[in-house]
Structures are given as structure tokens and as C-alpha cells.
Design a protein that fits this description.
The complex is a heterodimer of chains A (about 290) and B (about 350). Chain A contains 11 helices and 2 strands. Helix content of chain A is about 75%, strand content about 5%. A two-stranded antiparallel sheet of chain A has the order 1-2. Chain B has about 350 residues and is mostly helical. Chain B has a single domain, classed as ABC transporter involved in vitamin B12 uptake, BtuC. Helix content of chain B is about 75%, strand content about 0%. In chain B, α2 runs parallel beside α8 and α2 packs across α13. The two termini of chain B are about 40 Å apart. At the A-B interface, α4, α9 and α11 of A face α5, α12 and α14 of B. Chain A: Keywords: Amino-acid transport, Cell membrane, Membrane, Transmembrane, Transmembrane helix, Transport. Chain A: One of its GO terms (molecular function) is transmembrane transporter activity. Chain A: It is a multi-pass membrane protein.
Chain lengths: ~290, ~350
């Protein structure tokens, strides 16, 4: 039983990374209609920047938790202004391919600069060690990562449902044309929303940095799982992205624990099952073909 | 969505008679193409020439879906790599002549494509790309798990090049090129036949207006699945020849970067042009060969950069741009002679 609780916690912590990143992916898709292939690379960049901040400027985890999302926001804004915006009027597949090309460039650039072996990063002071609850040992950092990502998801949820900005973004997601007709300048929100989504991916990267190997390739498999997450949750749905993120994290953790050979495969079987039963995803709306 | 990925032919640029089916120019172009095919291993290192043809047919199989059915598969590595492994296993286990092994691999690719296609066509557009990508990754993990069969990280090594005991083909990559090219040409011919058949016309209808195709009584999903399976078979044919040519099959063949590379080749050649795939493959394969032989390490920077540039500035691709320019030229000249 104690093992089961540990796996659940690990799953929720990993799910937090997925949920945060998938949230960014979903927000960007909702407002811009762009599926950002480079989201995994942005997650990787977040972790790499955190490691570089520590190694070269000796800025620790807590600083990175604030600085990296800001840097990644800037990166996202640049990316949208310089590249993505020119293809927004075209078939969304073009931006999918554009961000794919960008992924190749980012991964290769990091590989050339920092090599293929992992960058070192330690669990921040105060979050190391384990706590014992009854007979169960739980890693403090996993609890922190899990709680932190839930808090961020709730904060983003409140931002979307309780503020005027959130209302505009949701309206633009729903029907950009009609939102414009009501006197809202939708175009003004496109760039910040893109940056915001990228910042969330960077934040997930910082959270993952202490527990995962920081390499140029760390986002390569991550992005595919992320796609499975948003297909399971329903790409248009923000709630779906979060719920499916944690669900996939749990499935993966149980898979690693009880059937290590099939851990990765189980996620895709889950995705196949969702497509079979509810093609539009758990929280997605029906698609008109 | 003002510009569809699968650009419909401009009415203004509709086939002028010089490019029509009975025009002698067409035969001349076909002849020129065959001449290039025959002379290629004289100009460049034969194994590289073989790679170009393999990647070319692979890109054509992707274009069959993307350009003619309107589905972007981002998981075609599953069929290319799946067939590479299966071809290798058949060749190693039974020692049959390599074309038999390649056909076996191709059939295997079609067998795994059927359930994947059946599930994936439930989604369209960008979702289809994501779903096929995820399924291909699943195949990658499965191959990695079946170490006894696939050799895991080491790959499948020592695939023989058996060919009816003909020594020249078995041991000299120059002569092997012609034997392999024959299989590739058959694959291209199948693709061409599919596109220019009543079946192909329905695919185009499904691409341009699925609702109307459905209203006309065509089962849109069934046509998509069939196109997907045919395309996978062609990708498998290319992957099988590739595996025989190199003598090994590795996990790299199944990786999503391979799916991405073939999409790059297709877009670079020109979506919906069929022949563009060969041109795109020629450019990408020789470029990669040149870069890696000159010791340049950041190939991803170059391929990624090409991707960004063609998607932003050059969406018709090489063949598409050339074709449009030719059509414009012919039409202009005709207009002038009329005035």
C-alpha cells in the first residue's frame, strides 16, 4: 500500500509537468489555433536556462522559478512576432511544421553548446529529503512539485474565469470573429497569450530540472506525450488539458511501477481508447468534419 | 483558413495543352527523368543515389496522403521503419532474394497501418498529425522492447543482400542500385496510377470537400483508410529497400525525426506534385551527405532552418514553383500569340 501511495505521488508530480505544459499548449491553440510543436523544446529550454543560471550566475531554484518564465515569455513573444504570426491566416498545419523546424534548431543548438550529457541540478535546499507519514516515505520535492503545479493550474483557471482578460481570451477562443464585432481588439491579445503559453512550458521545465536529466533531448519524448495528453483531454479544453495531464502522469507512474516494459506504451493505448470512444477527447466538443 | 495546405489548382493556371496527357513534351520529360535515374550512380556515390530514391518514394507516399487526400501523417516512420525491420528479419531468417523480403516488409507495413489508420481517420487536420505521431512513437517503444527480435538500441545488423546468386548485385552497390531502383520505380508507378485513377479522383474530392463527397455517397472514412494503407505500403517498400541497401535497420528509422524529415522532403519538393518528392529527396540527402562528410555537426540547424524558410516563404516547394512558372510562361506566350 505504501508503495502505491508513493507511485501515486510520483505520478501526480510528473502529471503536474504535463498539466502545466498542456495548459500552455491548450491556451495557445485556443486563441491562435496553433499547435506548438516546439512546446517540448521550450520545456527543455526552461530546464536548461535554470541549470545555466545556477552554474554561471549561481542563481538558485527560487530565482529560476521567477526568472525563467519571464525569459520564456519574452522568447514566446519574439517567436510569435518574428515567425508564427505570418502563418496565422493559413492552414494550421503550416505553423505545426514551422514550430517543428524550430524544434530541430533549438535542440541542435543546445546540443552543440552544452553537449549531450546532462547538466547538473540539485534539489533546492529545504525541499530535499523525505517525510514519513505513517509507514509511507514521501519525497518532499515531489509533494512540492505536485502542489505547486496544482496551485498554478488553479491560478490560471481563476485568471480565465474570474478576470476580464480571461473573459476576453475565452471569448476569442470561442468565436474570434464575434468577439471582434463586440469591440474587443483580439489581435492585441494574440502575442501575450502565445508568450504566456511558452512561459508555462518553461515553468514546467524549471520544476522538472531537479528531478530529471537536463539534456537537449529531454523535450523530444515529452512533446509526444503532451500531444497524447491534449488528444485525451480534448485540445480546445483547458480543464481537459489539466485533468488529462495528471491522468497521464498517474498512468505513466503506475506503468513504470507495475509493468516497466510497457510503461510508455500504456499511454498510447489510453489515447487509442479515448479516440475510439470519444474522438473529440474527454472534455472536447464534437468536431464537425 | 484562407489558404489550404493542399493548394487547389488555380483556374487561371489550369493545364495548358502543352502539359496535357498526350503532349510529346510529357514523354520527353519522362524520358529525361529515366535518363537521370539511370545515370545517377555515375554522378554520385551509388549508396547515396539509392538513399535518394528510397527517401523520394517515401516522400511520394506521404504526398499521396498530404497532397491528394489532405491528411498530414506525422507518423510515417512507423511504416518505413517497421518495414525496414521486417524486411531485415525475413532476409536474415530465410535468405530469400531481397525483393521478396522487401515485399514482405511492405505488406507488414500495410498490416500495422490498417488499425492505426482506422483509429486516426476519426480525427482530421492537425489532430490527425498529432495522433499518427503518437501511434508511431508507440511502435517505436514496442520495437525498443522487443530486443530479441529487433536488437533494441543496437539495431538489426547483418541484413544480407541475396539476389538469385548474382554476384554483381549482391556485392557491388553500383549494380545493386539498379535492382533496388526497379522496386522503387514500381512503387512510384503505383503511386502515379492511384492518383490518376477514379479512386484517386475520389480522394481529391474527399480532400477538397468531405461533406460533399459524403453527400455523393462515398464513405469518406473508408477512402481515407484505403489511402492510408496504400501510402504505408509504399513507405514500407522504400524502407525495405533502404534497409537492404544499408545492411541494417535501427531505431532511428522509427524515430519521429524520421517522420519529420520525410515531411520536410515532401514540402520542399512541393505538396501535391508527386514528383516533387524525388527532387526534395535529392536536395536533402545530398546536403546531409555533404554536411556529414565535411564534419559539420549541427545538421539539425540546417534542416530545421530549411523547414522554417520553406514554410514561411516557399510553400509551393521546388516542383510546385517550377510547375507554376512553366504554366504561367506557356499561358503568357499563348496570350501574346493570340493578341
Amino acid at each position: 500500500m505504501s508503495e502505491f501511495i508513493q507511485y501515486t505521488l510520483q505520478g501526480l508530480a510528473a502529471g503536474g509537468f504535463y498539466a502545466l505544459s498542456a495548459l500552455g499548449l491548450a491556451v495557445i491553440f485556443g486563441v491562435l489555433g496553433v499547435v506548438n510543436f516546439s512546446h517540448g523544446a521550450c520545456y527543455m529550454l526552461g530546464a536548461v536556462i535554470a541549470a545555466v543560471l545556477l552554474a554561471e550566475l549561481s542563481l538558485g531554484f527560487w530565482v529560476a522559478l521567477v526568472v525563467v518564465p519571464v525569459v520564456m515569455f519574452g522568447f514566446g513573444v519574439l517567436m510569435e512576432r518574428l515567425l508564427v504570426q505570418w502563418l496565422l491566416a493559413l492552414d494550421p498545419l503550416y505553423n505545426f511544421l514551422l514550430t517543428f523546424g524550430l524544434t530541430l534548431i533549438l535542440v541542435e543548438a543546445v546540443k552543440l553548446r552544452y553537449g549531450v550529457s546532462g547538466l547538473p541540478y540539485e534539489i533546492p535546499a529545504g525541499l530535499g529529503g523525505q517525510v514519513t507519514v505513517g509507514s509511507v516515505n514521501l519525497s518532499v520535492y515531489a509533494i512540492f512539485a505536485c502542489v505547486f503545479s496544482v496551485v498554478v493550474c488553479i491560478a490560471v483557471g481563476l485568471l480565465m474565469t474570474r478576470t476580464r482578460i480571461g473573459m476576453i481570451v475565452r471569448a476569442a477562443t470561442e468565436d474570434a470573429g464575434r468577439t471582434r464585432a463586440l469591440g474587443i481588439n483580439v489581435g492585441r491579445w494574440v502575442t501575450p497569450v502565445f508568450g504566456f503559453g511558452i512561459a508555462l512550458a518553461g515553468l514546467a521545465g524549471v520544476l522538472a530540472a531537479p528531478t530529471r536529466a537536463i539534456t537537449a533531448e529531454m523535450g523530444s519524448n515529452f512533446i509526444i506525450i503532451l500531444f497524447a495528453v491534449v488528444v485525451i483531454g480534448g485540445l480546445g479544453s483547458i480543464l481537459g488539458a489539466v485533468v488529462a495531464g495528471f491522468l497521464v502522469g498517474l498512468v505513466e507512474a503506475y506503468g513504470v511501477a507495475y509493468a516497466p516494459a510497457y510503461a510508455q506504451i500504456v499511454i498510447f493505448v489510453l489515447m487509442a481508447a479515448v479516440i475510439l470512444v470519444r474522438p473529440s477527447g474527454l472534455f472536447g466538443r464534437e468536431e464537425v468534419a | 483558413m484562407s489558404e489550404q495546405m493542399t493548394a487547389k489548382v488555380d483556374v487561371d493556371l489550369a493545364q495548358p495543352s502543352i502539359l496535357s496527357r498526350r503532349s510529346p513534351w510529357r514523354y520527353l520529360m519522362l524520358l529525361a527523368g529515366l535518363a537521370v535515374l539511370v545515370l545517377l550512380p555515375y554522378w554520385i556515390y551509388p549508396p547515396v543515389a539509392m538513399d535518394i530514391l528510397c527517401w523520394g518514394l517515401f516522400a511520394i507516399s506521404v504526398d499521396l496522403l498530404l497532397g491528394f487526400t489532405g491528411l498530414l501523417s506525422f507518423g510515417h516512420a512507423a511504416f518505413w521503419g517497421g518495414s525496414a525491420y521486417c524486411t531485415g528479419l525475413i532476409a536474415i531468417t530465410w535468405g530469400v532474394p531481397f525483393p521478396v523480403a522487401v515485399i514482405g516488409g511492405s505488406v507488414f507495413a500495410m498490416l500495422i497501418a490498417w488499425p492505426i489508420g482506422w483509429l486516426s481517420v476519426r480525427r482530421t487536420g492537425i489532430y490527425f498529425a498529432m495522433v499518427t505521431l503518437a501511434f508511431a512513437q508507440m511502435i517505436y517503444f514496442i520495437a525498443n522492447q522487443l530486443r530479441d527480435l529487433t536488437g533494441g538500441e543496437n539495431g538489426l545488423q547483418g541484413i544480407p543482400r541475396t539476389f538469385f546468386g548474382i554476384d554483381a548485385v549482391e556485392n557491388d552497390s553500383f549494380y545493386f542500385y539498379y535492382a533496388g531502383a526497379a522496386l522503387i520505380v514500381i512503387g512510384i508507378a503505383i503511386a502515379w496510377r492511384v492518383v490518376n485513377s477514379p479512386f484517386g479522383r475520389v480522394l481529391t474530392a474527399v480532400r477538397d470537400n468531405p461533406a460533399r463527397a459524403r453527400a455523393l455517397g462515398y464513405d469518406v472514412e473508408v477512402f481515407k483508410i484505403k489511402a492510408f494503407v496504400i501510402s504505408a505500403g509504399l513507405a514500407g517498400l522504400a524502407g525495405g529497400v533502404f534497409a537492404i541497401s544499408h545492411g541494417f535497420a535501427s531505431l532511428q528509422e522509427l524515430a519521429w525525426t524520421t517522420s519529420g524529415k520525410v515531411v520536410l522532403i515532401t514540402v520542399l519538393g512541393g505538396i501535391g506534385t508527386l514528383w516533387g518528392g524525388l527532387v526534395g529527396a535529392g536536395v536533402v540527402v545530398t546536403l546531409e551527405d555533404y554536411l556529414s562528410s565535411s564534419g559539420f555537426e549541427g545538421i539539425g540547424l540546417i534542416t530545421g532552418g530549411i523547414f522554417v524558410v520553406i514554410v514561411l516563404l516557399f510553400r509551393h516547394g521546388i516542383w510546385g514553383t517550377a510547375r507554376n512558372a512553366l504554366r504561367r510562361f506557356v499561358l503568357d506566350r499563348r496570350r501574346q500569340s493570340r493578341d
